[in-house]
Write a structure and sequence with these properties.
Blueprint (H helix, E strand, L loop, with lengths): L1 E2 L8 H7 L1 E5 L5 E6 H29 L9
Parallel strand pairs: 1-2
Antiparallel strand pairs: 2-3
Length: 73
């Protein structure tokens, strides 16, 4: 169980063990539940642009690499 003012990162082991995490507000009322799917969905949203840029860079190096001279960047 976590409270809304606590960092989610500290509760990840609990989330992993149970598969979910109950969240309480400042008064102690249950206000939500966080599931593993919520975390993976958020990670996908945040990480996708970086993976896309890496894929573009890889393809550019593959296509242009043999044609470029000098020190590689």
């Amino acid at each position: 169980m976590a409270e809304v003012h606590q960092e989610l990162f500290t509760h990840l082991p609990e989330l992993t063990h149970h598969g979910y995490l109950l969240v309480r507000d400042y008064i102690g009322f249950f206000v939500g539940i966080i599931a593993g799917a919520d975390i993976t969905g958020r990670f996908h949203t945040l990480a996708s642009p970086f993976f896309l840029v890496a894929e573009i860079e890889f393809r550019l190096r593959k296509c242009l690499g043999p044609k470029l001279t000098g020190d590689p960047v």
